[in-house]
Amino acid sequence: MTETLLDYDAWAHEQVKGHALNLNEEQFHRDLGDGVGNLVGKLKHLLWAEEVWMRRVKGDSPDASLSVPDFGNPMALYEHWDASRNGHFARLRSEIQAHPGKVISYQTTRGESFEQPLWQIVMHVVNHGTFHRGQVSSMIRRLTGNPVPLDMILFHRSRATAA
Questions:
Q1: What CATH number does domain 2-30+37-162 carry, 2.10.110.10, 1.20.120.450, 3.20.20.10, 1.10.8.60?
Q2: Cβ(10)–Cβ(127) below 8 Å
Q3: How many other CB atoms are found less than 10 A from the CB of residue 36?
Q4: What's the confidence (pLDDT) of residue 117?
Q5: How far apart are CA 48 and CA 69, in angstroms?
Q6: pLDDT, tens digit, 9 for 90 and up, residues 70-127
């Protein structure tokens, strides 16, 4: 099940990426108001959160000062993100397969200590990504008139037709 969730996460990442790369710099940085912010801010948050969790899995506990570079356009963001993401998610898959019951000890960005099974962290990372990609889809709809279709059933259909 964890493998399927990681596959879905990769598919959904690519769906959003495909739509985001069609945006111009003004759209990418436009403040959509209502406390929503802009698309680059939401995507940077996802990138930041993935980096924090991957470092925790590796045994490090970064604090809130961990930063993400500024990106002028979607291509620059995704070039950076994909380079790190591919390695991070390959490591997650490898760790889950080799040590399915592995427990990760870490500190939150506030310094609180916790231990969680790796599979729970993977579930959290995927769920967190799903939540924010839904927000990104809504933002893209506001910018272009077309949302990003991210339903898991579409992912399963795409796999069935690819097989």
A1: 1.20.120.450
A2: no
A3: 14
A4: 97
A5: 10
A6: 988 999 999 999 999 999 999 999 999 999 899 999 999 999 999 999 999 999 999 9
